[in-house]
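Hi, can you check this record?
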Amino acid sequence: IRHNKLPEERADFYIAQKVGSMQEEDNQAGLAHFLEHMAFNGTTNFPGKTMLEYLQDNGIKFGANINAYTSFDETVYYVSKVPTTNQNLVDSVLLVLYDWSCGIALEEDELDSERGVIREEWRTRGGAQQRLWDKLLPVMYPNSKYSKRMPIGDIDVINNFKPEEIRSYYKKWYRPDLQGIIIVGDFDADEMEAKVIELFSKVPAATEDAAVREYYPVEDNEEPIITVATDPESTNTQLMVFYKHERTPDEIKLSQAGLVINYMTSVASSMINERFQEIIQKPNAPFNGAYAYNSDYFVAKTKDAWTVVASSAEDKIEEAMGAIVRESERMKRFGFTASEYERARTNLIKRYEDAYNNRDKQRDDMYSQEYVRNFTDNEPIPGIEYEYNMINMIAPNIPVEAVNQMVAQLISDNNMVVAITGPEKEGLVYPETSDILAIIDKVKSEEIEAYQEEVSDEPLITTPPVAGKVTNSVKDDTLDATVLTLQNGMKVILKHTEFKNDQILMMASSNGGFSSYAEKDPINSKMMSSIMTLGGVGNFSATGLSKALAGKTVSARPTISLTTQGFSGSSSIKDFETMLQLVYLYFTSPRSDDDAFQSFIQRMESQLKNQEAEPMVAFSDAITEGIYGNNPITKRLTSADLSKIDYARIMEMYKQQFSNAGDFTFTFVGNINESEVTPLIEQYLASLPGKDIDSDFTKVDMSFKEGKSENIFQREMQNPKASVFIASSGKVVRNQKNNLLMSMLGQILDIVYTEKVREDEGGTYGVSSRGSISRYPDGQAVLQIMYDTDPAKMSDLNVIIFRELKSIADNGPRAEDFSKVKEYMLKQQTESLKENGYWLSILNHKYVYGEDDYSKYSETLNSITAKDIQDFTSNLLSQGNQATIVMMPKE
């Protein structure tokens, strides 16, 4: 129980159970997850659906603020962002946690209804990844329960278990010696503690003969375990190499020695990952990407592993395997260099420093999730003050030699596991176990050289620019911001906040985007955002830039869309100048790197080669065509398009769009001292070349198809399901009220469809409803509804989908649904007002687009009636534009 003041007047409530799928027997596979679902379907004090109804009446949204998850070794429930000004509500949420502990009803009719929901969750999530894991686990965990305990469970068990079986499981495993209550928020901690003790003391204690909660061991292996799993719908090749080792005992983990071990493995991970990043910047790299870390051995909590994960081209599996084993061996034999260690150490200290500087501005969820991990995984929680002081003692006193000694012990000759996954298709042959073993042996016998690097201490900007001037300064009293005009025409908006002690966020926008190139050159246009920063900036390559920014909390990168170009970024207070230096360089010295570009193309070719194997790609293509028709700007990139990408042309387009700094509006929000940042703004922004000329974007046809259309098509798939997409579109004036109406309509439909389609019919895991009204094309509105279901149920469920939508257009929403959504949006707005990101968006919208989304938000929202929702929905549907796309399995 912890008092925390952010967000104000809110609290998070968790109950964590040290119980997951590992506590199931074979004939119970899936009951842990099923039980988690049933916690929302009736309890002692909240029968039926009254729990969710009550919480949502108070602005606590199912999915966003009320949810749970089941894993192999734990099940965690939570109710978050509960208003603490309502004492009855707080007491009721405590009662919800109490009921989850010992009062889940598990009524027979509710159990039968939920079987359908879980079947549909199994159907929705049962893609290639699920099937690959089902193949991997039995080989990776021989003679272990971990080999057959995927939390989703066995569909036969889900369909056929008897009610007394899940009741017995609940009684056996949900008990106070395996449960933890975590409450963090803006309340009196002593009063909360008294409430918790009074209420939860009533939970029946475990009996003397209670089942022992076991943590199942993972066997050691002398020879490497090799497993290859393929699937017809897998699109990428992945390699995982595990060097298993004993987990750190809890008594060490929770001591200073545990912090030392964590520090050493963290810096080692950072250093090897920097090497991997450097490798993939070169043409013909052996892998597309790789990273390493030290943690649990895949899904098991009883064994740790130094883990290396890499993605590979399908014709480079053996090469990729050799490369990641070679880099592991290089690390084992030679460790890391002094310069690598200095960067990693500096970066880690800086991360702790950032957390320390913002220690009194941490939000509830940071603490509550950390406390959950403490309960389930024994993660230490000494507090940031202690950790920061310890890191500043540990880091300077641990030499690189000590880290090198430690990593050499991690890469052992036994306990090695190799898991390879990828596409299953004609002509693609994977290496045999003997081939992988031969690669490992060959690499281990090689004369590997120590890693060497060139270290540069060159500053980002060698010769600082001559400062420009601020020519005008105006106060925006409504939004409590300062608006600066620079001599080159640039507008700069500054808003001081204290929501974080050491954070400044940046956003910049200018009209134009890639619209002027889009129709004649759609492929280069769409690829600009991915390619234009590949080469780094100034005198620094992408990897060189990362090294140059060691020890700094800063990011800044250019962005581009169809209609705008701009920047996004963030920094600590002391690194604000570095952020502006990066902006200055991206304007004046963009850098090309042909090697990095060639490497990017090769990685993209590997990623795109098999994308059509995934059925949802065909579904996405059909949706795009159903909404936009045959518009080349909206088409996804294919492997055939890669040869048409012109790097020089993209950099030429980039320079053109960023040639006039005078048309940009920069917004900075955070702990800004205006008098201190203004000289830096004058030096790095006002000095940029530019003129006060309003630019515009080129009008490009992005209109939706009109009229009604239906496309029901079949696609081969391993896990038969129907995927449904329904879009209703039309013209609606874009203003604050209509934007709110569209948002409310989507949320109301979510509530209705959860009840009518998920709960009543057991027809889907969930229906997603959302809408938008675009700035460009002006007032183009669309409401999108998506869900997966049993192919046999699709037609009947679509009748319900259309019926309920039409009912809102004809009769308006149900009063209780309308009230829940409005209450949630008002509550969410109160929370957003204390977020730097919210104000960054508000100011950007006002000064770039002339939209004030703040001043009358609550007034406008409160003025909206159920009749407004009805009229809005009726107007949208009456325009007669509706696209229905359904992907069915081939019979």
The longest strand covers residues 300-312. DSSP finds 30 helices and 22 strands in the chain. The chain has a mean pLDDT of 97. The two ends are 55 Å apart (CA to CA).
